[in-house]
Amino acid sequence: MSRFDLSRSRALWNRNGLALESDEVLAQILDRGELAAWRELYRLASGPGEEAARLRRRILRLCQTVPLSFPHLFIAAMGALQGPIEPYPSVPPPADDLA
């Protein structure tokens, strides 16, 4: 299977480039990316190293805290890579009295 260049994803229409270390950019790809971009993220997250594990944790955190179009798709995919996952974790209360 050929690799997809994430910097060419249509999800990044308002970006000058790919900064995958940014949670905002990752969330944008998860929410607005095309199937090829999602497959590439899965390929990157399925790697054996710490970088792949960190990406899996970031994807899970974003799926559990940011409103995305298909969060359960990505939660299930990360579960397939690392085992059972709690899709609805306890969310900590806000740090201020505004909520």
Task: Summarize it.
The protein has 99 residues and is an all-alpha fold. The protein has helices at residues 23-32, 35-45, 50-65, 71-82.
Q: What portion of the residues fall into strands of 2 or more residues?
A: under 5%
String of helices and strands: HHHH
Radius of gyration: 14 Å
Distance between the termini: 47 Å
Overall mean pLDDT? 88
Name the shape in a single word.
globular
Q: Given the structure, what is the number of helices?
A: 4
Structural class: mainly alpha
The low-confidence parts are: none
Helix percentage:
40-55%
Number of domains: 1
Major pleated sheet: none
Secondary structure tally: strands: 0
Structure description:
This protein has 99 residues and is mainly alpha-helical. The chain has one domain (6-82). The chain is 49% helix and 0% strand. The longest helix has 16 residues, at 50-65. The mean pLDDT is 88.
List keywords for this structure.
single chain, 99 residues, mainly alpha
